[in-house]
Amino acid sequence: METNKKKLTTASGKPYVENENSMTAGPRGPILLQDFILHEKMAHFNRERIPERVVHAKGSGAYGTFTVTHDISKYTRAKIFNTIGKQTKLFLRFSTVGGEKGSADTERDPRGFAIKFYTEDGNWDLVGNNTPVFFIKDPKKFGDFIHTQKRDPYTNCKSATMVWDFWSLNPESLHQVTILMSDRGTPYGYRHMDGFGSHTFSFINAGNERFWVKFHFKTQQGIKNFTDAEAGEMRGKNPDFAQHDLLTAIDNGDFPKWTLKIQVMPEADAKTYHINPFDLTKVWPHADYPLIDVGVLELNENPDNYFAHVEQAAFAPAHVIDGVGYSPDKMLQGRILSYPDAHRYRLGGNYEQIPVNKCPYLVSNYQRDGQMTVNGNGGSSPNYFPNSFDDIEVDQSYKEPAWDFGSPVGDWYDRNAEGENDHYTQPGDLYRLMDAQQKKDLIANIVNSMSGIDGPKKDMIVNRQLCHWFRADINLGMAVAKGLELDLAETMKQMPQTV
To answer: How confident is the model over 243-266, as pLDDT tens digits?
Structure first.
């Protein structure tokens, strides 16, 4: 009698029966080499793990939609924004930054907030964090920074000494460190935090005018954070708390939402604005560039297979669309190169053919061959350009205006030169905006973390970092020094005279 049940088959489609018992020479004899199914199962099992991401290894993701609610056509010609009410499918991956794939997702760490919009002009990857700034502003320092967040090459343990040594030697990190050491460093899952494009990007409108832009995703669930103690407790109780929280909410129909808002700066303002608008360690004050409503992002579909969708998702700031472009933000420029390179290493040269990364609209180019080419490889069409045989044309309407920065190209500029070296005003302002309890939590988290500094350079590292806290706000510096049980009179002798 025929049934609709699926037959058990090999990957090549051959039905087989014995999936639990190996073929042997007698009931107790050795296994025969000809048991192909045994070899298939073991060989595939040995290859189930792909290299984990160097950063953002532990993550969660879901599909959803972006719906336009406000007209911003005067700033950008991007088709994703061209009609109020228009919906665009997307995939969003949240992550921790420094931990391995098996680490707890409630660690004190920034959170990745990476979105892939599937637009008719190609996939747009907006790859940011839950913070508007970052620890460094030059990509040459990125590998060094991440090494300090990973494991000590001698002990193979996390090291507060490495972390604070680097931060104390790089005062531009202070703004992000202040955020990280607040309760914003331990968000209550992924649904209750904001997201940011972080970098400065550009908009280009139908008149070929350029604007500088920053992206803000404001959670509609309300901000909610763990205290340091609560986060520590959750790491032991459920290291996958954020993953479970997101998955369960969507399964239950409680779809999380974020409101997309933007800050827009006219191109000419960048030349005279008192803050370098392309410095990733700085924010644009909202009083100067207010938030403008754009639309709503909703997550409403859990992937049916974690590996296929979340683990193989590949986001790159290089992937922009017409009407959205880059800026001279040095960190953004570095990520334009490094992210696609990381994906080619981890997933292969054809990673954009994987379904979660594949553009759902027409793709026409001359990229061919390589491992795992599964899209027909262009068939019999030419693999060179220009040619006399196909009908692919260059559409000049997508051309962008050139940049003009009025300075020579090809030199090395000190990232912290005069005019670029105020690392203290914004973190100090952030501290002064906090209420009493938030200040108390921040100080306790700083003291707890800095108490882990050890070794022969301990005093030097502690005092160097204390100088930064004092420069940001003298009360903050005094409170940290007191929490570390330092001799305040002796400490003040080593502090900068300007505080």
So the answer is: 999 999 999 999 999 999 999 999
Is the pTM above the cut of 0.85?
yes
**φ, ψ for residue 281, nearest 5 deg:** -90, 5
Among candidate residues 19, 21, 46, 56, the one labeled active-site is 56
Catalytic residue list contains 175: no
As a whole number of angstroms, the distance between CA 112 and CA 134 comes to 12
Are the beta carbons of 192 and 226 closer than 8 angstroms?
no
Q: Give the span between the Cα atoms of 380 and 369, in whole angstroms.
A: 13
Q: Is 56 a catalytic residue?
A: yes
Say which of 123, 129, 130, 445 is annotated catalytic: 129
Report domain extents, the chain: 59-357, 425-493
**What one-character-per-residue DSSP string does 463-496 give?**
HHHHHHHHHH-HHHHHHHHHHTT--HHHHHHTS-
The whole-angstrom separation of Cα 257 and Cα 64 is 9
Joined together, the tokens standing for residue 120 give 């008719």
User: CATH number of 59-357: 1.10.730.10, 2.40.180.10, 3.60.40.10, 3.50.50.60?
Assistant: 2.40.180.10
- In the numeric block, which tokens belong to residue 266? 């006219």
Residue 118 in marked binding region: no
Q: d(Cα 320, Cα 472) in Å, to the nearest integer?
A: 36
pLDDT at residue 245, as a whole number: 98
- DSSP codes joined into one string, 412-441: ---TTSTTS---SHHHHHHHHHS-HHHHHH
